[in-house]
Design a protein that fits this description.
By secondary structure, this protein is of the alpha/beta class. 34% of the residues lie in helices and 29% in strands. The longest helix is centred in the middle third of the chain and has 16 residues, at 166-181. The structure holds adenosine-5'-triphosphate. Adenosine-5'-triphosphate binds next to helix 1.
């Protein structure tokens, strides 16, 4: 079942700026979707609309099968939001902060549940610490704990690891994986492609208010990802021998490096033929290596292509 369904969603801000221009998106129960996009692409606007913080100017959103405008209360209860900004009460203690969040949804106090949430986020030992005495990373954990206090089915994380150190980023990824294992549907926005690569099931790319694609992470990487065979030659070539021309080979590094790009999903990579031809031409090879383009390269080229077209 689709947990979140977004259809033709549009947002024009008061000044006339169109932040979303007809976004369609369907997110299955229990999946992790990473939304990638440059600054100003519309990621926060999209999340804010689904969470009921910003009113759309067109289209429809359903969460758990309910319309977010007609059925605001019941959909809002299904959603947890971890905002980009740290917006915590500095003098409040951790435990009270998280308990209070549950109360906001009109739910009965549940100490066992709050304890479980705090333990999962390694915050239990800090339960009596006032927020202002926590490190930035711990504050981010409190934001997640707050978002989980009313047992949401869908969790939105708006740039959860912006500006946090590598260690905490990895902790965060583990926390997200743990939530997924418990069946939570997760949508996160990120600027860190490595993050999407590490934890997402599907990747969505958004730019200038439009979704450019949504695709399974692995299939995206194999489909868009070119592979290269890099052949280091014993002695440099001035030009390509005639026998090797016309198949897109590149000669780099003053003729020392021969680069053969191929589609890793194609039946024939052309590698065997290339090696045979090199041998036949008497060209000695010192070393070979392959490299796969990363999600980052795919993303950058996709956004650039779009800008060129515009
Ligand atoms: N309240 C507002 N009024 C007018 N324009 C707005 C408002 N909020 C956002 N915008 C504009 O809408 C566009 C999309 O903003 P949004 O915050 O959704 O982008 P984003 O993808 O989350 O960016 P970032 O990665 O920088 O957080 C931006 O150009 C922004 O300036």
């Amino acid at each position: 079942m689709a947990m979140v369904e977004v259809a033709q969603l549009a947002k024009k801000y008061d000044g006339g700026f169109e932040a979303l221009k007809g976004v369609d998106l369907s997110i299955a129960e229990g999946e992790i979707l990473a939304l990638l996009g440059p600054n100003g692409a519309g990621k926060t606007t999209l999340i804010s609309i689904i969470c009921g913080l910003v009113t759309p100017t067109g289209g429809q959103v359903r969460v758990g099968g309910h319309d977010i405008l007609a059925d605001y209360r019941s959909t809002r209860r299904l959603i947890g939001l971890v905002p980009q900004e740290i917006n915590l009460e500095p003098f409040e203690k951790v435990l009270n902060t998280v308990r209070f969040s549950r109360g906001l949804f009109g739910l009965k106090r549940d100490d066992a549940l709050i304890e479980d949430v705090l333990r999962r986020l390694s915050l239990w030992d800090k339960r009596d610490t006032p927020i202002r005495a926590l490190s930035g990373g711990m504050k981010r954990r409190v934001l997640i704990a707050k978002a989980l206090a009313h047992e949401p089915k869908v969790l939105f994380l708006d740039e959860p690891t912006a500006g946090v150190d590598v260690e905490l980023r990895r902790d965060m990824w583990e926390i997200v994986a743990g939530l997924k294992a418990q069946g939570t549907t997760i949508i996160l926005t990120t600027h860190y492609i490595e993050e999407a690569e590490a934890i997402a099931d599907r990747i969505g790319v958004i730019n200038r208010g439009r979704i450019l694609l949504v695709e399974d992470k692995h299939s995206l990487m194999t489909r868009m990802g070119r592979k290269e065979l890099r052949v280091l030659l014993d002695s440099p070539l001035e030009t390509l021998p005639a026998a090797l021309e016309g198949r897109g080979l590149e000669l780099l590094d003053d003729g020392r490096l021969l680069v053969h790009s191929y589609d890793s999903t194609a039946e024939r990579s052309g590698i065997a033929r290339l090696m045979a031809d090199l041998a036949a031409e008497g060209i000695a090879v010192r070393d070979v290596a392959t490299r796969q383009s990363s999600l980052e390269e795919i993303f950058v080229s996709m956004v650039h292509n779009e800008e060129d077209e515009a």
